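**User:** My hope is that you can spare some time for a protein that puzzles me. I have put the entry right below:
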Amino acid sequence: MFSDAYDLYSALWIKLVKLDIQKDVGDEILSCRTDNEIIKYVRHLLNSSKLQDSIELNGDCKNDVKAIACRKKGNEYFHPNVKQYIKAIERYNESIALAETNSETLAIAYANRSAVCFELKEYSECLENIELARQNGYPSRLMAKLAKREADCLSNLNDPSKQHPGQSKQREVKLSYKPNPNAPHISDCLELMENEQFGRYIVTNRNLSAGDVVIVEKPFSRLLVADLRYLNCDYCHKDSFLTLIPCRNCSVTMFCSEKCSENADKSYHRIECPIINDMYKLFTKVILMALRTTTVAIRTFDSNLEELRLHIESIDELSLNPFQLNWNAIDPKEIYSTIHILATNQKLRTPSDLIQRSIYAIIMSDQLCSKTELSKLCEDNQSNRDLIESLIFRHAQTAPVNMHSLMYMNYCPEAYEQYQCEFLGCGSFPILSMINHSCAPNVVRLTVSDGAVVAFLNRPIAKGGQLFDNYGYHHCLETLQERQSGLLAQYYFKCQCEACRKNYALYYDLPTVKIPTKTKHPINFDELELLRKHDMETALKKIPQYCRFLNTFDSNYPNHELSSVQEALLRCYQIVFSTQSRKLKYRNLCSL
């Protein structure tokens, strides 16, 4: 049995190689005129090899036995000699997600979660969990303990000295310049250009400075990483782990409120619910974004697959310019158009790569068409099945080269770097996807608390200059050969950025810049230590100083000082604006 979809692809490819027919298969793939022809041929290969039946699919259902096991694990973390309350909460949440509806198992899990809330001095959340325990039939034999906790909560709520101090709120991020009147999430100074060398790219029609915020964009579709599914809301991604409520049907999805649950159902979850547990096991987050973008697209058209098909056929990819759309009153269907036209690089992909993504599309579409509400639309309609397959196949190509990671600042008390930027999820962005790569970028992305991703500058850009993001290969961290080979393998282009043309050095080999005697050195190690501890006051003080240094000495780029200040500025922006882990709030109350 294959535990993930990549293993199935590998087994098929090895079989083709052993039969010495991989070249013939590749030629057949490249001769196909449409995506559906490619998928149909790969399905034939799978059927002939009899491998697809070896995929391990377990389905999903509520399970009190597993829920009780998770609760017991949570009890171990909650023990007074352990006090790992966040880990206890995570296991109690998993128990809540697994427990059968209106069962004693579910009620006890809520009650146990209320006990953690009490220890964390979150008395309102404690009362909320007590009420949930009662609503789900909390056993009368244990009710006295619950009633005492409720009385203690009410008493403590009236005593200011027993309240938990609130967590400092992140600052609201705003564009540094007047917004585009038709696209208020983009600065008016940005323009979309296109040529043969760069494809579509973004330039500025005015001088920009380091520190400027030029884009604040929310995703069309997004996906929470699997590791956070029992800590964060699946829809809004907030870490409301003290009060998450479960999906009524699947065991791997939780929400911070009934509103988010309803919004998720309308947007994607009503389709994905029966299969999402298996999909998590079979696919990476990047490929899962192909599923999520497809289901969001289908729900955007109210599951009217014929309307979706006609809409896609009507898209004029050459003339569609997201900068010219009126985003103040845009139809979500038009937003999907801007996602649908993102580059696939299909003509540059190898036959083996196309086989791999076809297999992903086949597995996902078969599950969607047989086990979800789409089955009624696909049962006797091959055209609908073909549409779903082709959409997943397309987005399985656009996701790795266009989707952006969503990040948050996690608190890791045992590590030297106690505040670490970690994956929250990933999303699809019509505007941010237009920014090209450089190994010496002038743009940095930042995820903020409302789910938007912010693009701010870490280098000045002259009027007419292009904005450059970084796709994961930076001259400070990788050699020229490593960057060139990595970008070619993943993004299908040979990078010709300034860092590659001039072969910029790695960070520790960079030259130093001679700073005038009247200019204060930007790096102060006492201040860096405060930034390492996420000191808000220091961050707010240092941002203008760091920006001034970057703007003054950019003509000397690259050098050790400028790269150091870029990293320090990023940390400042993370402190002031980034999504922060709620765990930080409880660092003095438990072992995290």
Q: What stands out?
A: The chain has 21 helices and 14 strands. The first strand starts at residue 179 and ends at 180.
